[in-house]
Amino acid sequence: MKQYSTPLQRVVTHILLLIGLVVSVFPFYWMFVMSTNTTSDIYRVPPVLIFGNQLLVNVSHVFQNIDFVQNFINTLIVAAVLTALTLFFCSIAGFTFAKFDFPGKNVLFVILLGTLILPSGAAAGSLIGSFEITAGLGWVNTFLPLIVPSMASAFGIFWMRQNALSIPTELIDAARIDGAGHMRLYVTVALPALRPALGFLGILTFITAWNDYLWPLIVLNNPKIYTLQVALASLNGIYNTDYSMVMAGTLLSTIPLIIIFFLGARQFIANLSAGALKF
């Protein structure tokens, strides 16, 4: 027998959701407040919680201390190219694993899943080995080490494979009867069905690439090709830091992520809804 929630339970649920919303949104609000005030205001007790009038001043300081436009373009190029390549390689590999039989398929997929438990790129040994390979290839101070090693991920292939399993086999067989090859099946059958999954993976990949800091810091030594996160980190002084300026730069770097999320939110929510229906 289906049980319905009581009015009290619904009120409690909405209150908890509202608290969660406030906790999630407050860091962004605080960042905005800090970027519109001076550093001395940030240190005040009690802290300033209202907007100031120093935003344009702080933004001008950001542009004076780093080449923000060039760093922004560098980051946009890396994130956009990496996202496009990741979506292509992960979707076509996931579709192949899900709907095609070939020798060693299961063994390869197990090996793929096994790579998920390997140490991340933040591990010291992994970073040293990766940098030696990068230097040996002559890729230091280029965008190649930021794109090539990450353009296909085990999680992305696994994610696309799980979503591709829902594509009807009969639809693929019908397309084959019409003479469709593998690439035509991928373009005409797989891509339309995988749009929500592609939206989710695209948002995740773009945000990850945009916020990447440690690896670009290691392989990029020329300020002209710095990504935005590395450039913003240079705003932190050794003895003194203008936190209002840093927060203004952080605010500017966050705006593209918000735009990307809203552009892809429809596909993102559609993917969550589809998962809920499957469950």
From TrEMBL:
What SUPFAM superfamilies does the record tag this protein with?
MetI-like
From the record, give the transmembrane residue ranges. Answer: 12-32, 72-95, 107-131, 137-159, 185-210, 243-263
GO annotation terms (biological process): transmembrane transport
- Domain ABC transmembrane type-1 span(s) in chain numbering: 72-264
One cellular component term from this protein's GO annotations in UniProt: plasma membrane
Which PROSITE patterns would you find in this protein's record?
ABC_TM1
Q: What is this protein called?
A: Sugar ABC transporter permease
